[in-house]
Specification:
about 475 residues; mainly alpha; 21 helices
Length: about 475
């Protein structure tokens, strides 16, 4: 059994199957993997509803509000590498259960965060929750590649990501109704002292109740996965030998992250960010995958940029739609529209899973990235419903990007795929950096959310370049 089946060429819609890498014979296991994609997709998208709520409750700037995404996606930086080690040690199914249990703990931590109305505790709960998501994602991405023939890896991963998008569509719609429902009644800016603290605690009640419901759902999925934990035999020898990063180097990187966090708060935010970004450089600067496989290195960069661009738009879209230039409605009224953004991604992934069987994945990736750029430009240069729905339509362009970048980057990795998945999960840290950069630009331009869209435009432009590059065989 190989960890990831080989795909002959991204330019051939019907690649030659490698007979030495047969798919895993585990009937029915795909449905559990689809459930994992649904869960971690939905939880991630809830941040888009949480941000405008916390921004109002704690009267935050755009930069401060984007700390929600920074703390959530920082888990990919800190947990991606040990998560890969854990999965290699205990296997896919038990690794999934460990990740789901960590997610439950994160959800439960919203209770003390809400009752004390403390923004820092919310950020801590999000980090724990995201740590579980990272472990589940380390399992899910390579596992879905195993459960079928190599010739359909691209389309199968895209189809699985469609269930991710189903979660990102359903969760924010329900979350907007529960969490944003009372935003229009009172403003935290009009309160102070004990009244402000009481208001924050009362309004936060909807948050912890919503996440408690999510914890129950995760517990049900975890129980089901545990019952079927022996359906996939664990053999760590097929996951590659050696360590992705030595323990000593990893601890040195953690020290850099801690120092960077301190500098960000006490000295200068940009200096602190530079020190934090030095951690993955220390961990991976001489990694054989990044050094010897330019295609994989370019793909990992594009995962960083794609997740960052997608999260930046999703995080700000409710505030963007509520501006006078666009729809001019309060967040509590238009909060449900975030579901349209993610619904487009879901529909696009179902369509993309079929299209990727016929057309070159690299060319489709480049087409979608250019389409996203054009939609953003139209949105920023128009007003009203045109501006609103063209930005929401970026979700459709995003649809196939993550799974296509992932599978193009990881072609021919074979038994190194577990390490490759760990590196990719570190690259998802872009979801912390790019939205924060977006918030800084927005604040620096007086809250001009349209002008700050230059940040995701740059991300999509580089992704388009990878699509053109990756049309060649791996």
């Amino acid at each position: 059994m190989a960890l990831a089946p080989d795909v002959a060429s991204s330019t051939d819609p019907r690649p030659v199957i490698d007979d030495d890498a047969p798919p895993v014979d585990a009937p029915g296991l795909q449905y559990f993997v689809f459930g994992l994609f649904f869960i971690f997709g939905g939880i991630t998208s809830l941040n888009d509803v949480l941000i405008p709520k916390l921004r109002e409750l704690f009267t935050l700037s755009y930069t401060e509000a984007m700390l929600v995404q920074f703390c959530f996606f920082a888990a990919y930086l800190l947990i991606g590498i040990p998560g890969a080690k854990l999965v290699k040690k205990i296997g896919y199914m038990r690794g999934a259960v460990a990740g789901l249990a960590t997610m439950i703990l994160g959800c439960l931590l919203f209770i003390p965060a809400s009752q004390t109305a403390t923004y820092a505790l919310f950020l801590g709960a999000l980090f724990i929750l995201a740590s579980g998501v990272v472990i589940v994602q380390v399992v899910a991405n390579p596992l879905i590649s195993l459960l079928g023939p190599p010739s359909t890896t691209h389309s199968r991963l895209t189809f699985a990501q469609a269930f991710n998008s189903l979660g990102t569509t359903v969760f924010p719609i329900v979350g907007a109704a529960l969490i944003l429902g009372s935003l229009a009644n009172v403003s935290a800016e009009d309160l102070e002292g004990a009244a402000l603290q009481a208001y924050r605690a009362a309004e936060s009640e909807a948050i912890w109740q919503g996440y408690l419901g999510v914890a129950v759902l995760i517990a049900l999925v975890a129980a089901a996965v545990w019952m079927f934990r022996n359906r996939l035999p664990h053999d760590s020898s097929v996951m590659g030998d050696g360590e992705l990063v030595s323990n000593g180097r990893y601890l040195m990187g953690l020290a850099l992250v801690a120092a960077g966090a301190f500098l960000s708060v006490q000295v200068n935010a940009w200096l602190g960010m530079a020190v934090i970004l030095a951690a993955p450089v220390l961990w991976l600067y001489d990694n054989a995958l990044l050094r010897g496989r330019k295609r994989f290195a370019f793909g990992a960069l594009c995962i960083f940029l794609y997740v960052g661009g997608e999260v930046a738009i999703g995080s700000i879209i409710i505030n963007y739609l509520s501006t006078e230039r666009v729809l001019g409605q309060p967040e509590s009224v238009i909060g449900w529209m975030i579901g349209i953004y993610w619904f487009g991604a879901m529909v696009g992934r179902f369509i993309g899973s079929a299209a990727l069987r016929v057309f070159s994945p690299g060319k489709i990736l480049a087409f979608n990235a250019i389409g996203a750029i054009l939609l953003i430009i139209v949105s920023t240069q128009t007003s009203g419903e045109v501006a609103a729905y063209t930005l929401l339509a970026v979700g459709l362009m995003n649809s196939i990007m993550f799974p296509t970048i992932f599978s193009l980057a990881c072609e021919k990795l074979g038994p190194q795929a577990a390490d490759g998945s760990g590196i990719i999960n570190v690259a998802i840290f872009g979801g912390a950096v790019v939205p924060l950069l977006y918030g800084v630009v927005a604040d620096a331009t007086g809250g001009n959310l349209a002008l700050a869209m230059i940040i995701p435009i740059i991300c999509y432009a580089i992704i388009a370049g990878f699509g053109i590059f990756a049309r060649r065989p791996a």
